[in-house]
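User: Is it possible to get a 3D structure for a protein together with its bound compound? The compound here is (2S)-2-hydroxybutanedioic acid. I've pasted both below.
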Amino acid sequence: MKFRSTLLMFVLALGFSGMAQATGEIVIKFSHVVAPDTPKGQAAERFKQLAEKYTKGKVKVEVYPNSQLYKDREEIEALQSGAVQMLAPSLSKFGPMGAREFELFDLPYLFPNQETLHRVMDGEVGKKLFAKLDSKGVTGLTFWDNGFKQMSSNRPMHKVADFSGLKMRIQSSKVLGAQMKALGANPQVMAFSEVYTALQQGVVDGTENPVSNFYTQKMHEVQQHMTMSNHGYLGYAVIVNKSFWDGLPAGIRSELTRAMQEATAFERETAQKDNDDALAKVIAAKTTTVYQLTAAERAEWQKTLLPVHREFESVIGADLIQNVYATAAQVEKEQAVTAKPAAKSDKKK
Ligand code: LMR
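Assistant: Yes, that's possible. Here is the predicted structure of the complex:
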């Protein structure tokens, strides 16, 4: 009896660690919640191809898109228990795991451009955030982009007052809750896989997402208005089960790291393009009116939303927020210097 239960535990442990015992092959189950033709979906496939090639078939990567295996919260629990080995959740979904600092990336109007974002995520801040995951049985590998978010609903949203009373779906982030409340809306946390139906049935009035997620989930069929607000950022952390990762042979781990670096370069290149393409498709579908904020309207949104930074200083850490401000200032300075000679040579012509 005792032998049987010990054997069962052993078999389960093998399964959980992603090792397919019979073939000696290592299996990585990579679960995610978006469509295959999004930046994350395509990069997961690219990682699969590269990982299988570089490890000469010793590793098999199985990609499960569209919440096929797990929804938002469940997938993180599945990673921690070892039922899947790899995920790329949005940075807004780490709070329930006890890593609220990741909500830095949710602060409205924090990142003025992509260069600032990448320096922050690839630098000290990214390292500090990944270090927070160790004690949770999770290892952070890299950050992937999606892009800046736009607001959608069935009501035009030009001025802040237009949000009054709107039920807006958000991810499980306190910062996003505070952002919607600052606008006068009523935030509702909901899994990504449920958003389309909730919009269709009027359970919520609107949502926020980069356009590639909006289009690939067909939200344009059920949202009449979208405002190009770029008010916040959506990105991902690619994470693995720590004991699975640490237990891999070193040579395999380094080939997987190489595959992930290349998949990351591909992902970051494709993300902006995918959002641009998706916007063209939304406009062509003619079911959603796309509105560009005027400078005065944007200034009003910013004035309303910037106090959320102070409100969350003690949760996220003032040092992390200050790091972003300083990086943004540095990037702006460098861009001004590189822009100058071009302006001069333009004049000569
Ligand atoms: C959402 O839940 O709105 C998105 O973060 C989904 C995703 O992973 O892009």
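Residues 33-34, 90, 146, 171, 192, 209, 213, 234 surround (2S)-2-hydroxybutanedioic acid (CB under 6 Å). The two ends are 88 Å apart (CA to CA).
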